[in-house]
Amino acid sequence: MIGIQIIPAEEVNLKRGLEEKERELRQRGAGTFRRAGPGKWKHTRFKGFVKFQKGIGDVLCVEVTSSRSAEEDEWQLLRAFIGFLYRHFKDDVVTITMQFN
């Protein structure tokens, strides 16, 4: 499991932005992340999930997980999620902190 804390720029609701962008891409038939529940995404290619929730002070708390049998996919999920943030929200993010457990 990889824990990520993302501090957005002032006045930015990053959780809402992520949800809206995923919906927009899905409706156009684009994108590789798909909603798997509230605050939970799965990737079309890599096994595992990206879960996120809004924390104190608009900090976005994210958990990237894959099963033991798909541990190799965990870093690829991480890379895909960070790439998604960079492509769509690079001007809205101040800091990203990762914790490897």
Would you kindly provide a written description of the structure presented here, covering whatever features stand out?
The protein has two helices and six strands, in the order βαββββαβ. The chain has a single domain (2-100), classed as 2-Layer Sandwich (TATA-Binding Protein), CATH 3.30.310. The chain is globular. With 101 residues, it is of the alpha+beta class. Strands 2-3-4-5-1-6 form a six-stranded antiparallel β-sheet, covered by helices on one side.
What is the name of the CATH class? Alpha Beta
Round the mean pLDDT to the nearest integer and report it. Answer: 93
Oligomer: single chain
Order of helices and strands: EHEEEEHE
Give the total of domains: 1
**Count of extended strands:** 6
- Beta-strand portion reads 35-45%
Topology-level CATH name: TATA-Binding Protein
Let me know the largest β-sheet. 6 strands, antiparallel
Major sheet: arrangement of strands: 2-3-4-5-1-6
Could you tell me the radius of gyration in angstroms?
Answer: 13 Å
- Structural class by SSE content: alpha+beta
| C-alpha geometry | globular
The share of residues in helices is 25-40%
The span between the termini is 6 Å
- Point out poorly predicted stretches: none
